[in-house]
Amino acid sequence: MQTDCQKLGFKCGLEVHQQLDTGKLFIRNKSVLSDELNFTVERKLRPVASELGEFDRAAIDAFRRGETFHYSGNTENISLIEIDEEPPQPLNKTALETALEIALLCESSPVSKAIVMRKTVIDGSNTSAFQRTMLVSLGGSLEVNGKKIGVEQIVLEEDAARPIKKEHGMVHYNLDRLGIPLVEFTTAPDIKSPEETAEVAGKIGEIMRLTGRTKRGKGTIRQDVNISIANGARCEIKGCQELELLGTVVEKEVERQLDLLELKKKLCQSFASQKTKQPDTQNIFGAPKEISDAFANTEAKFVRGKKWFGMRLKEMKGILGTKVGAKRFGTELSNCAKAAGVSGLLHRDELPAYGISESEVETVLNELECNKNDSFIIIAAEKEKAERAFEEIKKRILIAFERVPEETRGALEDGSSEYQRPLAGEARMYPETDLHEEEISEKLLKEIRKKLPKSAEQRKKHYIKSGLSEQLAEKMKLSNYARFFEEAVESGANPKTSAALLLELLVELKREGINTDEINLKEIKELLVAEAKEKIGKSHLRQAIIELSRGKSAQEIISGQKKIDEKEIGAKIREVVEKNAALVKARGMDAIKPLMGDLMKDPALRGTDGKMLSELLKKEIGGNRQ
Amino acid sequence: MKPKGPKNKNLKNDKKEGSLVRFNFEGKIVEGTVIPSRSKELMIKMASGYNAGFDPSKIKSLEKLGESKSVGKPKTVSVPKKEGLSRISILHTGGTIASRVNYATGGVYASFNVEDLVTMFPELFDIANIESVFVSNMMSEDMTIKDYQKIAKAVEGEIKKGARGIIIGHGTDTLGYSAAALAFMLENCPVPVLIVGAQRSSDRGSSDAGMNLICAAAFIAKSDFKGVAVCMHNSTSDNDCAILPAAKTRKMHTSRRDAFKAINDTPIALVNYRTKEIKWLKDKKSYVTQKEKFLLKDKFEEKVGIVKMYPGISKKIIEFYMKEKYRGLILEGTGLGHTPIGKNDEFVKEIAKLVESGCVVGMTSQCINGRVHPSVYTNLRKVASTGVIYCEDMLPETAFIKLSWLLGNYGKKEVEQKLNINLRGEITDFSRTDTYKPEM
User: Fold this and answer.
1) CA angle, B143 as apex, B138 and B147 as ends, to 5°?
2) Which residues pair with A80 in a beta bridge?
3) In this predicted structure, what is the pLDDT of residue B358?
4) How far from A217 is each of A20, A363, A480, B134, B197, CA to CA, in Å?
5) B192 in a domain, yes or no?
């Protein structure tokens, strides 16, 4: 698609949002996700005039829908701040330092004073109706496949509440995600193809993970893409969670915009007035009219018993069925209608269908005085809501004669997208009056620069050199433990043992239900160093971690250790084999099982790694038999 | 491009507040408006909407592009009077409910005109014809008796002009004190006077100002309520507002929307935000009948204080009020209305001296909930015998306002007689069982 993209005037920039694992940005409570909800707050949000005295388009859209928002949480980890009942606490410094580290890793220049801003968000995803956000740095670049991609800016902000469901005009949110720090990494529109989009996103993710302070797992990183083509428009597609899907999202959006341009051509031609050659749109729309009677005896369950309103579209037969991207033009209109608060629409080009009969369609055509080239749209809703939706649909149809509209769209699972709201205006921010400005001093930057992580590739090389296997080194290079690993090795820990403990043992124990998250890494380091100094056996580390998780200190564990060296183990094994010489002779390797039983019962060997014991035993028996 | 170098003569002028500028910040071109800075950094509101401070030593090639669009007020709309709607006057006294953000500086300023109200809360104007009256602009913690008097005069003026009801926009910190003061000043008040505040400022979409104002207006338009009350969120949700008894309402939380609670009493009514329906929690009759003629009694005695009792409190504190010739003092006692007795009863004796000196002393409880009692314990009897008046289940703050008001309008005998008798709903006849609820 590379050459095509150039011809099309394709431009694309990325916004990558990565959650940080540093605790919430302005709230000192645990940032854990939980579906155990035990309280709910109901709110309505109202648009406020922006600083230039204008209302934000997106904000008015939401208020007009008259939505009520339900916010739920668990009292053990949601505070008054999340429900907008208390001012924010001071900025989480670790989160800021992490954002600065990311900035310095791609030569982005930090500002000297970061100001926390309130960014108006009235879709309900923030209880306060704004998102706290601060600009951390400007400019910089990253290298992807030898090509430089410009960095626009790096921002540190609060994540929004998590939408759970939407019903009866009410949107339900879980508050657990609200306030988790997000680093927003914005590139310049330097990306030249769908394939490159995914590569750049991957690189950005890698840089952020180098810090060792990012959250991992589904939903912790989200990509928004800004796409435009020549004669098209800038559209922002939000919320692509899968890196693999990013290329498809971009391709589908290009296709959608091309189809809209094609549709525009078609509309302008078929509606061109004889005189002016300009499209004449004056008589397209009939007045909305109630047509519920048409469905009085309908078979279609979802149609029955509702109030239906219809609007005639003159000379538009076939237009709403025109392909636009992955869907039809009718779908674009339907999404606009949904944004205006109704549950969707039906149009002539898709009927009869869904249980609506031919004759019912005829009745609607008659009711709305449609002739054979006309189309219609019908909507089930209260009169006022239906009229509002028709207004939005009219606007959207008229736009189709002129241009591709700028809009914010939401990514869908198949890589296509749907309309969410008009592209947000620019004047949506004003300073957070409850917080001080944040100084980013040269001294702080110098300290961060000193500890800046090496690149992932450098890390990997270095780890292999220190003795890790290719596989462990690959795993470690972007692990949140990487920096701790380096620190531990520097303090004298064994690289292999440390990596195995951090990347494998901890995961294994966690899976077994042992709470390893609460263990202080300092304690683990102490254990690892002690292991390297042979103050504790390697085979005892597993038990030691379990004890740490139960609140024992590394010091206690180490000093309580009676060291069993391999010599002693060897002597014990020889002793058992000699004692059972007859058995060994008779059953050979099959004697391992009963002998292991004896060994494990020996109090002197308690806590010794079974696997190691069995290896040594095997060797001993093998040796004896030769 | 302009010649380089920091000695550019125009630089200072270019960096003036409100200038639209463009400069090179470490290789990145930044455009934006200069905004006030309290430090050496150049503060810029960028085209992206972000504000940030830039170290001047990292800025190159700054050029002025022009002046920014004037920053500030929302576009306003004119408001035609609607026939068939009654008149509600909104008196503005300042506080969060009136505060708007100056988006350029992040500072807060007050706004009071009708145009602003209609821009922000258009639904208000479907309920009534709204008049907007400026009284003062202050945060409520700075209010004094003079301000109470000013507000009361303004209320009287609006009543004379035929207002169906009055809404007073007020800062929340001392809203309870003002509510009590107005309740006492406006004797036989013939219209609803609702005091309304906001715990979240109006600059945010989640502000409680709109709902509190709209519920207050709906209550005025739909009820025949007469008297003073407070209208604020009933819970943290945007479901209904509580109409609270003026002399029995207290700010019980520093930041929540539902900070105001009726103490030793229940709300008078609830107003549903969505339907505007009123649900009476009290017998409606007593609130809608006009008993006698409306009188404005707006005098106060300034030399009245309030002292909280605490373990080890020095008698010198009581001495101070005597020396300063205070005419009234409310004690916030512990429990049922205790003070320390002191060595050889010295603290109680000091109180007795104060009473003898002519100061009217009232006893309330720092428990807030419940009623004081003069004779359950021996020590209580000692305090009671000094001549201290036990103020039943009156809030300490209300008792303070009441005593000040009584001393302003009545002779000492009458003051002593009226202090623990209910005048405006500040004392209940009996202690209700439903005002202090356990967690469910």
Assistant:
1) 95
2) none
3) 96
4) 12, 53, 12, 56, 44
5) yes
How far is CA A5 from each of CA A8, A187, A234, A237, A243, rounded to the nearest angstrom?
5, 18, 15, 18, 20
Q: State both tokens at A582.
A: 């007859």
Residue B277 counted as domain residue: yes
pLDDT of residue A179: 97
Q: Chain A: residue nearest B235 by CA?
A: A41
**Is the predicted pLDDT of residue A60 greater than 80, yes or no?**
no
The separation between CA A199 and the C-alpha centre of its own chain, rounded to angstroms, equals 17
C-beta atoms of A138 and B211 within 8 A = no
Structure-model confidence comparison of residues A618 and A611, the more confident one: A618
Domain membership flag for residue B280: yes
The total number of structural domains that make up chain B = 3
Closest by Cβ to A139, choosing from B26, B54, B199: B26
What mean pLDDT value characterizes chain B? 90
Interface check for A443 against chain B (CB to CB < 8 A): the answer is no
3-state secondary structure (DSSP) of residue B103: coil
Q: Measured between CB atoms, does B284 come within 8 Å of chain A?
A: no
The mean-pLDDT minimum among A6-20, A41-55, B345-359, B407-421 falls in A41-55
Question: Mind telling me how many Å the CA of A229 is from chain B's nearest CA?
Answer: 22
CATH number at residue B377: 3.40.50.40
Res. A536: pLDDT tops 90: no
* Inter-chain residue contact B26 with A112, CB threshold 8 Å: no
Q: Same domain for B125 and B257?
A: yes
Instruction: Show Cβ contacts of residue A423 under 8 Å, excluding neighbours closer than 6 positions.
Output: A234, A235, A236, A406, A407, A408
Most confident range, picked from A54-68, A261-275, B22-36, B395-409: B395-409
Residues B129 and B234 in one domain: yes
Inter-chain contact A129–B206, Cβ cutoff 8 Å? yes
Both B43 and B61 in one domain: the answer is: yes
Window 44-103 of A, Cβ < 8 Å to B? 44-55, 59, 68, 80, 83-87
Compute how many other C-beta atoms are within 10 angstroms of the C-beta atom of residue A80: 15
Helix A610-625 vs helix A592-601: crossing angle, to nearest 10: 130
Catalytic positions of B are 96, 172-173, 251
Structure tokens, A382: 């209260």
Q: Decide if B255 and A86 are in contact by the 8 Å CB cutoff.
A: yes
Q: How far apart are CA A551 and CA A548, in angstroms?
A: 5
Q: Which tens digit of pLDDT belongs to each residue from A183-219?
A: 999 999 999 998 999 999 999 999 999 999 999 988 8
Residue B240 lies in a domain: yes
B window 123-182, beta carbon within 8 A of A: none
Closest CA to A386 of A311, A333, A283, A296: A311
- Chain B residues near residue A48 by CB distance under 8 angstroms: 120, 202-205, 207
Supply the pLDDT for residue A52. Answer: 45
Do B199 and B111 have their domain in common?
Answer: yes
Portion 375-434 of A in contact with B at CB < 8 A: 426-433
Task: Show the domain range for B330.
Answer: 304-418
Q: What are phi and psi of B423, to 5 degrees?
A: -115, -40
Tell if the CB–CB gap between A112 and B54 is shorter than 8 Å: yes
Angle at B326 between CA B320 and CA B327, to 5 degrees: 150
d(CA B14, CA B34): 9
Contact A53 B75 (CB under 8 A): yes
> Is the whole-model pTM more than 0.90?
no
Is the peptide bond preceding residue B36 cis, with omega within 30 degrees of 0? no
In this predicted structure, the answer to whether residue A606 has a pLDDT above a threshold of 80 is: no
